[in-house]
């Protein structure tokens, strides 16, 4: 709510509201406490609705219509944060794939020839 609206409702000037908000530590403390109480009440109400929402999504995922099922599944994944986690892991680049492949080839070849023991390869030590 804006200061002008608060001033009308409390029948004080907008300037007074501004002074309280910016210069009255007691007012700011009480305002913060009130906001915290309201936030907690709303949070409790939302928490109570979560199990109902999960039940609705569970029902939607059992629908015969495959499009409804897919959209429900996507929404569950999005809400759970899993879809973002999957996108965050970018696929390996061509260079990374080649480097990994070549590294494995070198490791296997040197092990077969007895040049480097497998446990020493990762530590950077030379073999016997």
Topology (SSEs and partners):
Blueprint: H1 3-10, H2 14-23, H3 25-61, H4 66-80, H5 82-88, H6 94-112, H7 118-121
Helix pairs in contact: 1-2, 3-4
Strand content: under 5%
Radius of gyration: 31 Å
H/E topology pattern: HHHHHHH
Q: What is the count of helical runs?
A: 7
* Low-pLDDT sequence parts: none
Shape: elongated
Helix content: over 70%
Helix- and strand-based class?
mainly alpha
**Number of domains as seen in the coordinates:** 2
| Assembly status | single chain
> Largest sheet, if any?
none
End-to-end distance: 77 Å
**Mean pLDDT over the residues:** 78
How many runs of DSSP E, i.e. beta strands? 0
Structural summary, described in words:
With 128 residues, this protein is mainly α. It has two domains: 3-89, no CATH class; 92-128. Helices cover 78% and strands 0% of the residues. The chain is built from seven helices and no strands. It has helices spanning 3-10, 14-23, 25-61, 66-80, 82-88, 94-112, 118-121. α1 packs across α2 (14-23) and α3 (25-61) runs antiparallel to α4 (66-80).
């Amino acid at each position: 709510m804006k200061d002008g609206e608060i001033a009308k409702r409390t029948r004080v000037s907008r300037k007074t509201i501004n002074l309280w908000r910016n210069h009255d530590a007691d007012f700011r403390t009480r305002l913060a406490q009130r906001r915290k109480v309201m936030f907690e009440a709303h949070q409790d109400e939302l928490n109570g609705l979560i199990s109902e929402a999960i039940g609705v999504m569970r029902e939607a995922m059992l629908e015969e219509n495959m499009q409804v099922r897919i959209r429900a599944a996507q929404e569950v994944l999005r809400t759970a944060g899993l879809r973002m986690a999957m996108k965050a892991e970018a696929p390996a680049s061509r260079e990374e794939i080649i480097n990994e492949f070549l590294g494995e080839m070198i490791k296997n070849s040197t092990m077969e020839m007895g040049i480097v023991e497998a446990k020493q390869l990762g530590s950077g030590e030379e073999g016997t």
